[in-house]
Design goal:
6 helices, 34% helix, 248 residues, 8-stranded mixed beta sheet, alpha+beta, 11 strands, single chain
């Protein structure tokens, strides 16, 4: 298995979404490889692996996943870090703070090589890659790719966690986890209630949902009362008919 470098764009802090340019096509990299258009299978889903290839080297758990696609002379990965895991949150924070200092690498296997012309060989090219299989991508200190840098960091509104049962607001994921130990999996529970909306918006939405539920309950009670009145009316009519029959 081999490795190459790439760069990354953080798309959305509220969900851990990322977009990475991890390869350039028809350009010789620092390993002397030229990758041709079509070398990567579009739509392939791959893990985002632990820093420094530690998923491959030491068995550390992956921290996200994404899908590969080509655009122009670039190959990109669009994916998401696992923010419901500590490692996923740690990796996202590192990527955000390092910005353009952060390099990436991808783990791959060469499936098909092309011919290296004399002209390319004179320019230092040692391999032409026609087909590769990517096993994963990972942040690293130094990679082999050319023209790599963090493209951008984009954030939504500050994320909050709001407990539906009582509208309690948590400003951090860890605070939510600490206060909801009653759940079978507090981390998964808190991941399910996060929002990039403001606390006021979430509380208003929760209040509106409660109001709708109360209205439905009131309507059900009204219908039940009407049904009970109808039952009593029919029962009274039945008793009057029975009395007339008995007198006859």
């Amino acid at each position: 298995m081999e490795r190459k470098s790439l760069d990354l764009e953080l798309k959305d802090e509220s969900t851990g979404e990322v977009e990475a340019r991890f390869a350039r096509l028809n350009v010789a990299d620092h390993d002397g490889d030229v990758t041709l258009p079509g070398a990567f299978e579009a739509g392939t889903e791959v893990p985002i692996t632990h820093y420094g290839h530690q998923t491959y080297l030491a068995g550390a758990l992956p921290v996200g996943k994404g899908t590969l696609y080509e655009t122009g002379d670039e190959v990109r990965l669009r994916g998401r870090l696992f923010l419901d895991t500590q490692a996923g949150r740690d990796h996202f924070a590192v990527l955000k703070h390092l910005g353009r200092l952060q390099q990436w690498s991808y783990e791959f296997e060469v499936l098909k090589r092309g011919e290296v012309s004399e002209d390319l060989r004179a320019k230092g090219v040692r391999r032409v890659l026609e087909k590769v299989r990517v096993f994963g991508v990972a942040p690293v200190l130094v990679g082999a790719g050319v023209d790599t840098a963090t493209l951008a960091v984009k954030a939504e509104e500050p994320k909050t966690w709001i407990r539906p049962s009582d509208g309690k607001v948590y400003e951090t994921f860890d605070a939510c986890v600490a206060d909801n130990q009653w759940a079978d999996d507090p981390a998964a529970y808190c991941a399910s209630i996060h929002s990039s909306k403001s606390a006021d918006e979430r509380i208003a939405a929760h209040k509106a949902a409660e109001d709708r539920a109360a209205a439905r309950a009131a309507e059900t009670a009204r219908r039940d009362a009407e049904l009970q009145e109808e039952i009593e009316r029919v029962a009274a009519a039945h008793r009057r008919l029975q009395d007339r029959l008995n007198r006859a």
